[in-house]
Amino acid sequence: MIGVIFCSGVFFSIYILIHPILSSLGLNFFSVSLLCIIIGVLLNNTINFTDTFSSGIQFCKKNLLQLGIVLLGSRLNFYEVGNFGLMAIPFVLITFITVAIFTYFLIKIFLDNKNTIMLISIGTAICGITAILACAPFTKAKDNEIAYATFVISIIGTIALLTYPYISYELFNNYANQVGIFLGTSIYDTGQVIASSFIYNSHYENSDVITISTVTKLLRNSFLIILIPLLAWRYSDSGKFNYYHNIKNSFPLFVIGFLFFSVVRSLGDYVFFSTQSMETWNSVLQINNFLSFILLNIALVALGLSVNLKSLKIIGLKPLFIGLTLSIIILIVNVFSIKIFLN
Questions:
Q1: Residue 75's domain spans which residues?
Q2: How far is CA 234 from CA 114, 135, 230, 239, 243, in A?
Q3: Distance between CA atoms of 195 and 161, rounded to whole angstroms?
Q4: What is the 3-state secondary structure (H, E, C) of 195-241?
Q5: Closest listed residue to residue 43, CA positions, set 323, 314, 309
Q6: How far apart are CA 30 and CA 202, in angstroms?
């Protein structure tokens, strides 16, 4: 509980005090979401937190993040979710196939690091650390290999969320569809995608990027339900318990919550359209959006508190090189495919 209070306190300090002061000084580059990440990282690497903080930080990073995403579903109606999802599917498939092809060659080159490469690739293609932990039982990866893969994904994903919003603006001229799909397919963890879209919106005032990147990322997450049975088949001697346990837990339930709130938004828009209650309904949606903003940014503080810069020394250069290679390949492929097929 103390970790939740701490993360919440950091966020409200940023939102009420630090961000307004920086804005008054003309430092508009530092958005609330960006500050949540940066201050979280700085605190984690300068203060030794006790174990009493850990459970609360993990709760914020996972549960509050998922609840914030669920509430984010009310930003767009179900029809828009379907349209954005259909638009994003080809680019999610391109990301998935590209990672699979280059993983094959990387394993051929770095055969001794086969399990680490496999886990980094899974995290790159689908949903970061969540995918790594869900798929690790099938790959027979050792604890240190799982740790290396999660460190790499965390570090590179953090770099991406801090830089891709600005790169995407230069590449796609603030076109929401292109930017949203780029962020949703190129950044790893769901929290990192949310953070990058918030940073983008704070600088370039295009809130559609948040919804499009979120739908794209949730679509990517759902590919776990395809990947886990494939891994179970590939590593057929995996325990039966692990097989059914991981398939049962492979589909992120907060995706269903996101879709539910989107349906509620759709029904509300239909029922209250052109009625006296429309203004009240819009006020409810604004409150819901602000609550989502609070929860997601508290989760971003926790995300920053989970980044350990000392891990760079621990994991060595080879896993980082492999992770950076894959991220650069995905960046290039996604940019070209979006520019070619989504004009």
A1: 63-341
A2: 14, 12, 6, 13, 12
A3: 7
A4: HHHHHHHHHHCCCHHHHHHHHHHHHHHCCHHHHHHHHHHHCCCCCHH
A5: 309
A6: 9
**Plot region of 173 (φ>0 → left; ψ -120 to 50 → alpha; else → beta):** left
> Which residues, in sequence order, are CB contacts of 180 under 8 Å at separation 6+?
84, 197, 208, 209, 210, 211, 212, 213, 215, 216
145 lies in a domain?
A: yes
pLDDT by position in tens, the chain (length 343) = 788 999 999 999 999 999 898 878 877 667 787 788 888 888 888 888 777 788 888 888 888 888 887 887 777 677 777 778 889 999 999 998 999 899 888 888 887 778 888 889 888 888 777 677 667 767 777 767 777 787 788 788 888 988 999 999 999 999 999 999 999 999 988 878 988 998 999 889 898 999 899 889 888 887 776 776 677 666 655 444 455 555 555 556 677 787 788 788 888 877 877 777 788 888 888 888 889 889 888 888 887 887 777 766 666 677 888 889 999 999 999 999 999 988 7
Residue 272 corresponds to which amino acid?
F
Residue 13 lies in a domain: no
What's the total number of domains in the chain? 1
Q: Quick check: is 302 in a domain?
A: yes
- Long-range contacts made by residues 316-320, C-beta under 8 angstroms, separation at least 24? 318/110, 318/113, 319/113, 319/116, 319/120, 319/148, 319/149, 319/151, 319/152, 320/152, 320/155, 320/156
Amino acid making up residue 308: N
Rg of the chain over all Cα atoms, to the nearest angstrom: 20
Compute the distance between CA of residue 321 and CA of residue 249 in angstroms, rounded to an integer: 31
Calpha distance 110→322 (Å, rounded): 9
Q: Does a structural domain hold residue 89?
A: yes
Residue with tokens 């020394």: 313
